[in-house]
Amino acid sequence: MKGSRGSIKWKLMLLYAVLVVIVIIVIGIYMIGKIRRNLYQSRYQEMQYTAGRISDTVELAYGAGEQDLTEVFTKVVTGILTESGNREGLLLYLLSPQGEMLYSREGSLSPADLSSRTILGAVNGQESAELYVHEAVYDEETRIVGDYALPVFRGSEIWYILMLRQSLSDIQGTIRSNALIILMASLIAIAISSLLAYLLAVGIAHPLERLTRRTQEMARGNLDAAEEMTEKSGSSDEIEELETNFSYMAGELKRMLSEASSEKNKLETIFHHMADGLMVFDYDGKVAQCNPAATELIGKGIHGLSFGDIFPEESFEEFLHAPEGRIRQRTLELDGQSIRAEFAAYANEVGEAEGLIVVLQDVTEQHHVEEMQREFVANVSHELRTPITTVKSYVETILEGEIREEETLTGFLQVIDQESDRMTALIAELLELSRIDNRQVQLAMKRENLTEVLADCVRRYRIHADKKHQQLIMGADCPALPVRCDRARMEQVIGNILINAINYSADGAVITAWSTLNPEAHEGALHIQDTGMGIPYKEQRRIFERFYRIDKARSRSSGGTGLGLAIAKEMMEMHHGRIELDSVPGKGSTFHLILPLMDGEEAEDEEI
Ligand code: ADP
Q: What pLDDT band is residue 602 in, cutting at 50, 70 and 90?
């Protein structure tokens, strides 16, 4: 990462430096070439001038009577060179019009020199247009020399050819020193431009590095750092604009992520706290997710299980490939619980099924209520049909006029009367329960001594006990129990318990009623104990259910409806109290009616 971050800086620097070096080299080569050309040109002009002077002087001298060209030439040359001191180290050659050497001052020309383009040009009557630069032995050394040849005419004929040669070492030296200067200047320029290149590269690379760091922060999830605005350089160039856009983008991303995360949190909270169980199965039918409610409903650790482990009777494939939007429902029985399961497949962006979502609802209670309602209706119909059938058959028998004896007729009419009473009682109790269910019962709450209410009931019901030669007795030393209650309703409850005690105990049995005070719990209790048949343990909880009777025939024959205890329980609860039972089958039962005691000076009369 670091290398790639640094590389843009170095690339920029290298590019800049290479460009500068190329430019400097091109300029250097151009300058040196130009200098060389200028120096050669001026040397050429000097040599042309010297040749002109020599040829002019030779012509004059020749005209003055000197007839030997070589002689004249030698004199003239010696004179001119002596005059100028021959500082330039000029070599002079006199050639015939055919290019043969007639005279040379120092050294001679090689055959190659004689056939050079300079001499060939001169033989053809052309003066050298520029210096012919080449290597030649000069001063016993091989040096770079420049040649110049001038054909001198007499009339239209070439009279002789004058050739000049001069070493160019001094020019070479000048060029070298100039090249050195240019090289030095180039090095300085390269150094300065490298520094500038570095500064430029840093200037460009630094914001890019900053941006890179921020993208890395962003990749690590640190959006705050990515969003942070950098100090403005004021240049407002593209990079700065890029940084601003990047900050904006990071900010937007942060906002979107925070929205997404709060959505996710919301869904997770719903997922974890919803009352319905939720399970998500992946494409292979394995549990991918489930909420605590699902675990509780299924009753075992769900993680790692497959669809078949949880729903052995259902086909995962069938639900998975069900048409989109179709929700399938099943009601399953799991460990005595009724669970309604809804199966819906979920798809990916291209609409392919990815897995299954199962919503579980515990409908046990609902089923139970429905079951109870069904049972209740069946019970009510049955309870009403039995006396009506009895009444109808007795009435039909009477109407047939077959009964002659008055005694039998009276017996029949008594049965009809009893059955009518039972129906009336049943209907009255049903109405009472319906009023309780609909919260239509109004209690006339008053301060009462519950012990006194019990004693009153005992006195009133003793007549029923007497019929069975039973003893209904009130316990001694019962404490006063100040409570707030609807006296008539409490008498109804106590009466129900007492009647049951009498009905479900044998003749001659003893039934005892007494009261106790529980100051710690701030409660008072009435206890009614019989020595009757008792209630089997498994039925003890159920006898408070509507129409629940252990022995239907016995209950019916004693005028029971199976609703008495259900009403008593509801009444006690309406008084903020409760009813409890202790019973040993075959030995007898004790019912406890418990009510909260009244606080000191509470309001006297009140209706609820
Ligand atoms: P019922 O009108 O049949 O008496 P209840 O609701 O009063 O209806 O009582 C429900 C059932 O509880 C009775 O049918 C009876 O089987 C049982 N039961 C109630 N009280 C006693 C008791 N003291 N001893 C034995 N069984 C009792």
A: low
